[in-house]
Amino acid sequence: MSVTIQVVGSLRSHFPASSVLEGAATVGDAIQKIGVPQSEGLAMLVNGRLAHWKTPLNDGDVLQLVPQLAGG
Amino acid sequence: MTIGGVWGKILHVDLTSGKTWSENLPDDVYIKLVGGRGLVAYLLLRDLPKGADPLGPDNLMIFAPGILQGSNLPGSGRHGIGGKSPLTGALGSAEAGGWWGHEFKRAGYDALVVHGKAAAPVYIWLKDGKAEIKPAKHLWGKDTADVQIALRDELKDERVRVAQIGVAGEKQVLYACVINDINRAAGRTGLGAVMGSKNLKAVAVRGTMNVPVADRAQVNPVAKWLGDNYKTLAEWAVQWGTPGGLMDLHTTSGLPTRNFNEGQFEGAPGVDGKMMHRTILTGRDTCQVCPITCKLVANYNGEEFPAEPAFKTSLQGKVQVDGVYGGPEYESISAFGNDCGIDDLVATAKANELSARYGLDSISTGATIAFVMECVEKGLLTAKQTGGYLPRFGDAAAMVEGVDMIAHRRGFGDKMALGVKRLAKIIGKGADQYAMEVKGQELPMHEPRLKHALGIGYATAPVGADHMMNIHDTGYTKPGRSIERVGLVYKNAEPMAANDLGRQKMEVFYHEVNWKHFLDCAVVCMFHPYDYTHLAAALSGVTGHAYTPQMILDVGERAQQLSRLFLLREGFTAADDKLPKRIHQAFKTGPLAGVEITDEMFTNARRMLYELMGWTAEGVPTAERLAQLGLDGLY
Fold first, then answer.
1. Of B136, B146, B325, B633, which is least surrounded by CB within 10 A?
2. Nearest to B114 by CA among B97, B99, B131
3. A chain contacts of residue B448, beta-carbon cutoff 8 Å
4. Does B240 touch chain A (CB under 8 A)?
5. What is the pTM of this model?
6. Per-residue pLDDT tens for B234-270?
7. Read out DSSP for B561-582?
8. What residues of chain B, 450 to 509, have a C-beta less than 8 Å from chain A?
């Protein structure tokens, strides 16, 4: 089972812009496999819709990791 | 005084009689409330008559740094202010960075309380324990930069720091703010109008006294830790400052657009904070004892940036932006930009400059103009009513003109100066459905439909809608510093969805909002990545009194409880703890399509919060909780 992981913004200095990942059952699994980003906040989109740590992943899904600011 | 970090006394100045006097506060007040918002709420309950007119002589104008100011702890270069808010009638409470707070503390008092009203414009001059009331007629009407220069000249000291109102505060715009160091704003809740109503133009300070610190050996490791870690843990602030995340909020539908009609803005690249770094950003700036240097300085004088296709302005040749007034932070860019449907970075920078020049809260100003734009679009306003001022979403020149009109209360600006709640009442015809406010304060530029607990925070904060004494749910969606921090006191902390409003989320909210209020009592910068143990150690070292992490959170909770008692006394009830209807309407497209904060979710979450706060179902703090917190005798 493979999913595409895309990262945007400042995450691109720590991760490839796009990569393919095998064998991650949930969003949380996928993030732990590539390494949890250090950003202030994080939003996860699966196929363009808001998801979360426990959202299950299906073959062919696109997971987007978007850093989020939190104040100011 | 037996604890370190404080002088043990606050300065009172009565502008009606011209008298000044010193009041000794007992250790107990400092230990339990620390300063900032806690001290403000305590003084308002104690000394402000119930039902006082916020623009009358009975209101108090309070300047309240906290125990940590003057200690040289990184992040302590801030101060708080307070009073009864003329915008909301609820708690007025705001903070700012820069240099003034540190200087004030070194001038020998822990706080300043201004009473009454001067017969003519005055300023207060405080130097090393000695206070004078001096005439300020010659400063009235002048821009904030000119006033600071004039005061340093008059007082013959280039190191004088100035907190002041601009023309907006003089004219009592209900969301006028207090500016310090020319470009720092204690922005929200309209305390600039309180100063204006007292004929108080400025408070100039100079302090060379050393604040006693009980045990530097406990403070130094905290400072060293910050120095060793800020470059990674506050990387976003170091590299970009606050606006760096604007495009990312657009991506997740968290970017307030056209008065919160949408969460994504097609013009976002035109106000992208990262693009600002490649165009009008000319420098960075910092505050007292801060290595992070998050602040932005923007200058514009007609330059072009052909390498930046998204950089376009309709104001070239028409405006200049003067970097002496700093540069636009995220909230300012967002309120004047996307919330007004404007994709013109220069326009937002100019509006921000005017906000600092004239002393306006940039959030409420932009939000009010956005509201007016929607009323125009919906046909609720005529040229006759507004003297011809009919801005539509996207009109950059009209937006900038609106800021100037509001500051000077010129034409329709006189009514815009009242804020969206009162303005909606004046307009009628259902305009209130477009008024994005809670308790009369305009919503800041964060979208509760993405961050659901943030929405609970908007509804329940003692100042009306506020994004800082609040949590941002996206900080708790993954393992990391936020979850680790709250995990110290809440063992069940684990990643949660941004749009979750269950029990776990509310428990996290409870602890972390207590932490935020503590930070506004100690008045420490929220961009410093401290956790509870760091500041427990720092506070222990400065005072010589042993604080644990839970005691730190208790300080924050006391500020919340006293603030809540103030609101209840002034007539607010649980019915006021609500969100604008629009926020309950799910977006129809994009990442948040169909994601809704239902009435049931909201009511359940609010009920859980009341329980966690020790409030009744009507949102009233129980005597039991107040006693548990050691508040008996303090209200």
1. B633
2. B131
3. none
4. yes
5. 0.98
6. 999 999 999 999 999 999 999 999 999 999 999 999 9
7. HHHHHHHHHTT--GGGS---GG
8. 450, 467-468, 472, 474-475, 477-480, 482, 494-500
